[in-house]
Amino acid sequence: MSTIMILIPFILASLFPFFQAQPLSSAFANQGQWNLLQPSIGISPMHMQLLHNDKIIMFDRTDFGHSYLPLSNGRCRMDPNEIALKVDCSAHSVLYDVATNTFRPLMIQTDTWCSSGSVLPNGTLVQTGGYNDGERSIRMFTPCFGETCDWVEFPGLLSQRRWYATNQILPDARVIVVGGRRQFNYEFLPKTPSPNSSPSSIPLNFLQQTSDRSENNLYPFVHLLPDGNLFIFANTKSVLFDYKQNSVIREFPPIPGGDPRNYPSSGSSVLLPLDENLDSLEPEVVVCGGAPRGSFENAARGNFVQALGTCGRIKVTDSNPNWVMQNMPMPRAMGDMLLLPNGDVVIINGAGAGTAGWEHGHDPVLSPVIFRPSETVNQFSVMAPASRPRLYHSSAVLLRDGRVLVGGSNPHVFYNFTGVEYPTDLSLEAFSPPYLAPDFAPVRPVIRYITNNNVLGYRVFCYVTFTVPNYASVSEVSIRIVAPSFTTHSFGQNQRMVVLKLSAVTYLAGEAYYATVMGPSTAEIAPPGYYLLFVVHKGVPSWGSWVQVM
C-alpha cells in the first residue's frame, strides 16, 4: 500500500470539520452591516419611492426655507403662496441613482409636507396632497433613462385636503386615497366623472371614530387583501372595508393594551407575504411599536414616555380573529417595517421614547431588528447598530440588491445642525442584512433569464433561469415578487409580497436550473404594475429583477 493511500484516512479526518455545518464566521453574517453612501444629498428625505429604473425619488417639504442643494440650470421656484420663501432657488426633491450612487435635483412647485403616493401600472408615481398650497395637489413623476424627467403638477385636483393621508393601489389600477388631517373620508384617482359615478369624496365614519385628542389615526395602515377588500387600521381599531359598496364588513377586536399605533404615536405595519403555494391564502397583518396614550402631550412638556415594545399579529380571515401579541427586543416608535426578499421583516429607524412631531422623540433606536414571522422560536434578532440617529421624518426603502436604503431625520421645524441634541441629517446610508454576507455566497442564486420579456401574466406560466453554486433542493427554493413601498412617516404604502406558485425546479447544466412558476392568480393578490422578482434559496435571495404584472 502506498504512503498516499495510508495517509488518505488521516487527511479526510482532518478535513471532516469543514464538511460539517460551520458556525457563521463573520459579524456581517450574524448582524448585518452599515455603509455610508452619501454624507449629504442636500435635503432630508421624509418620503421615498424606488422606481423600476433603479432610481429613487426622494423629497422633503418646501415650507422651511432653502435646502442645501441648488436647482439646476439657474432655475428658481416662484410661489406667492409659499410660507417661507416666495422665490426659492434650492431643491426639495432629488432623484437618486442606486447604480452610480449619484443624485440630481428635481423641482417641486407646491408643498409636499406629509403627503402620500402610489405607483401606477405603467411605472408613474402619483403623489398626492401635502400642506398649504400643496394640500390638494396631484403630482406625477414618470421614470426616464435620461436627465430630463421631472415632476409634473396638477394643483387643486384633489377633492379634499390630503395631509397625512394613505394611498393604496387597487386591482383595477385606480388609487384610493384614505383620510388625512380632519378628513374622515376617501376618494379615488383618476377621477372618472359620469352621471352614475360616486361623489368626489366619500365619508368613512371609522376614521372619525378613531380620532382622539392627539388624533392618532393619521396615516392609517391600509392593506389590500386577496378578497379585494381593504384592511384599515387606525389608532387601536381595525375594520374590513368594502370600498366598492362603502361598507364596513367586519370590525376586528382592538389591539390589546389600548395604546395607539398610528401617527403621531407612529408604529408601523406590514401585510405578511401571500403564499400561492398554500391551499388557501390566510392573510396576516402585523403592527409593531407605537407610543402609550398621552405620549404626544407628555413629549410637548419635555416628558418622553417609553415607546411601545409589542407587535400584534392577526389572521384577518379567521372565523374568530384575535391579535397575537409578541414582545420586540426593545421599544420603538417611528420605526419603518419593510418586507425583505426572503420573507423576513426588518424594523429600522425610530425612537425609544416620545412620539412623532417637532422635538417629540428621544432615545434613538440605532439597531434594526429582523423579525422572522415563519419561525416559532427566536423570531427577533438584533442587528448591528447604525452610527446616525434616524428619528422624525426619516424613511427607508428596499433596494434591488437586497440592501435597505435609509435617509432623513429632521425633528426640527427648520434644518438645524448645531446646538441641538439630534441635528438634521442629510445623509444616505445602506443597511445590508446578514443574507448579503460573503458567507452565503455558495448558496446565493443569480437570476439569468426570465421568459415572456419579464412580463408576468395572471395565471400564466413563466420560467426563471438561475445559477447557484451549491444547490440544495426544490423545497429550499421560492420565487417571490415584491411591490416596492412608498415610504413616509413609518409606513410603507402599497408594499406587498407574493410567493408565486412553484411547479418545479429543473436542472439544466453546471450550476444552472430553471424554475417553473405561475403568475399571480388575481389582481386582488397582486395589482398590476412593476415588481421586483427574487429567487430565494436556503433563505438567501438573489438580486431582484424587474417584472411587470399585467
Automatic annotation (TrEMBL):
<dbReference type="Pfam" id="PF07250">
    <property type="entry name" value="Glyoxal_oxid_N"/>
</dbReference>
<dbReference type="InterPro" id="IPR013783">
    <property type="entry name" value="Ig-like_fold"/>
</dbReference>
<dbReference type="InterPro" id="IPR015202">
    <property type="entry name" value="GO-like_E_set"/>
</dbReference>
<dbReference type="Pfam" id="PF09118">
    <property type="entry name" value="GO-like_E_set"/>
</dbReference>
<dbReference type="InterPro" id="IPR037293">
    <property type="entry name" value="Gal_Oxidase_central_sf"/>
</dbReference>
<dbReference type="InterPro" id="IPR014756">
    <property type="entry name" value="Ig_E-set"/>
</dbReference>
<keyword id="KW-0732">Signal</keyword>
<protein>
    <recommendedName>
        <fullName>Galactose oxidase-like Early set domain-containing protein</fullName>
    </recommendedName>
</protein>
<dbReference type="GO" id="GO:0005737">
    <property type="term" value="C:cytoplasm"/>
</dbReference>
<feature type="signal peptide">
    <location>
        <begin position="1"/>
        <end position="21"/>
    </location>
</feature>
<feature type="domain" description="Glyoxal oxidase N-terminal">
    <location>
        <begin position="46"/>
        <end position="435"/>
    </location>
</feature>
<feature type="domain" description="Galactose oxidase-like Early set">
    <location>
        <begin position="444"/>
        <end position="549"/>
    </location>
</feature>
<dbReference type="InterPro" id="IPR011043">
    <property type="entry name" value="Gal_Oxase/kelch_b-propeller"/>
</dbReference>
<dbReference type="InterPro" id="IPR009880">
    <property type="entry name" value="Glyoxal_oxidase_N"/>
</dbReference>
